[in-house]
Amino acid sequence: MSLPGGVAGRGVALVPDCLVNPDAPRYAHLELAPPDILTILSRCGFGLLQLPSHVAGDPEEGQGVTGLARDAVDYARAGYAVVVLAVATVPDGAVWRPALRRELARWGAEPLPELVLDASGFPGSVVETFLTGQLARRQRVPVPPA
Asked: What architecture is the 8-137 domain classified under in CATH?
């Protein structure tokens, strides 16, 4: 994973679509006002695994979580810090929590470190502190070797 300026990233965040695209019409009812998550992730050396929208209308829309969970486990095995950013005011944190945990367990992984945010407004420094702390610890998902 490479970031601007040749800085090698060592973290990956699973982020709900509503934090990546807060101005999308489908999220108007949530009154979201998050800081620029992509800039924060980049500044902290984190890449992005974007979770599918939780309001797409079909409970099966969370099926995309299967591949993302496997990717998260692969990144963890490679030594990346892997985290989840969730939204407090949205069901399942907008991260498909039951499906995500089920899929992580299927690959032998524990639940990932999670920061739950109030998307109606929070300082970017909260996210930066969490991400840099996780990077410093290099928390790896405890999984058996492939």
From this structure: 3-Layer(aba) Sandwich (3.40)
